[in-house]
Write a structure and sequence with these properties.
Elements (H helix, E strand, L loop, with lengths): L1 H7 L2 H10 L2 E3 L10 E3 L2 H12 L3 H7 L2 H5 L2 H25 L25 H16 L4 E2 L2 H21 L5 H18 L3 H10 L3 H14 L10 H25 L11 E2 L5 H36 L13 H30 L4
Parallel strand pairs: 3-4
Antiparallel strand pairs: 1-2
Length: about 350
């Protein structure tokens, strides 16, 4: 067993996959030139796009489209599972402290998270959780061919998992563990999804719990001997989930959830020029709202925290301190989640963008 685990964690296994996909390390190159050569441009683009599905830009722009253009119920389920598996994965990384693949022999295409530990792959965890939570939740809400949905879920999660090998950010063991951990979490929590829905939407303590528990988990995040982006990324994820949860609770109290009307499951809307134009308009308005909220709240929260702790405005390194990073990101992304789940749909009503 130990030999099998060592083999799956071997950097050479990742490098071999990269070479088979047309990505080669160029050693001894000039610093100003790339340290790799791409011989299969199509696979290169495909895997980079797949890897992008696990980055912040996807979560704050594309994922909310399920709420704005399909069904807020499904988006709520996705956010809940995404938040849970990502927190588990991030903490496991910093507790287990298993390194990422070595370069050489591996080509590293993403340097921002290279200081993070590797196991498990949170990209693999998120892709698995999002794909299969949607697959399991959608049949009761929307009419679609389950086999087609299963094919799409398997394809999406597989492409994201393979992209982590192609970008050189994870070993095969990291990816396999990520998939298995997400699958285990889903199996263990699935019987309680409906009960949690009721608590989240109707309990008077739901908004307080949604804010207090994530904030506590962010402040008690495992400390490392060096700075890593995992604490900040975890705060971003938990805060976004907290804001969404409070927004969904408020929608329920206000009596307008913006969920599909009629007998469930409802047919998928016909893809006409009109519905496509409405969908694009909602996407653009929603993205402007959440990105604008992010920018404003980030600037305001940092300014207030710098003033509170008497930190010079030009001290960029202070942003990595826990007393600055955690409350700043928590305030910013709680606001983003709240705007996404509560305010954007009401803006759609004012602009006549809801059918």
């Amino acid at each position: 067993m130990r030999e099998a685990l060592a083999y799956l964690h071997d950097s050479e296994l990742v490098a071999g996959f990269q070479r088979r996909c047309g990505l080669f390390l160029v050693e001894g190159c000039i610093i100003t030139k790339p340290g790799y050569e791409v011989k299969n441009r199509l696979l290169h683009i495909l895997f980079l796009l797949s890897a992008g599905l696990g980055h912040e830009v996807f979560y704050i722009t594309c994922l909310p489209c399920i709420h704005w253009n399909l069904d807020p119920f499904l988006c709520r389920r996705l956010v809940n599972m995404w938040t849970l598996v990502m927190y588990i994965g991030q903490v496991m990384k910093d507790v287990l402290k298993l390194p990422r693949p070595c370069s050489p022999p591996v080509v590293k295409l993403e340097m921002r998270v290279d200081a993070e530990y590797g196991l498990p792959s949170t990209h693999a965890m998120a892709a698995t959780a999002i794909s299969f939570t949607l697959l399991l939740s959608a049949p009761s809400r929307i009419q679609f061919q389950f086999e087609l949905g299963l094919l799409m879920a398997v394809t999406l999660s597989t492409m994201v998992c393979l992209s982590r090998l192609y970008t050189g950010m994870h070993s095969v063991l990291d990816v396999i563990c990520g998939v298995l951990i997400s699958a285990l979490v889903m199996v263990l929590t699935y019987p309680y999804w409906e009960s949690f829905d009721q608590f989240q939407l109707t309990s008077s303590v739901s908004p307080m719990a949604a804010l207090a528990l994530p904030f506590f988990l962010c402040y008690t995040y495992p400390e490392l001997e060096h700075y890593s982006t995992t604490r900040g990324d975890t705060t971003t994820i938990l805060a976004a989930g907290a804001g969404c949860s409070v927004g969904y609770w408020l929608n329920e109290q206000l009596g307008e959830t913006f969920e599909p009307r009629g007998v469930l499951p409802v047919p998928l809307p016909a893809l006409t020029a009109h519905t496509l134009a409405l969908g694009i308009a909602r996407f653009l308005v929603g993205v402007v709202a959440v990105v604008g909220t992010r920018q404003v709240m980030k600037a305001v929260s940092l300014r207030l925290l710098y003033w509170w702790y008497d930190i010079p405005k030009d001290d960029q390194s202070a942003r990595t301190r826990k007393e600055i990073e955690v409350p700043s990101k928590f305030a910013t992304y709680t606001s983003v989640g709240l705007v996404h789940s509560l305010l954007v749909s009401r803006v759609f009503l004012l602009l006549g963008l809801l059918c």
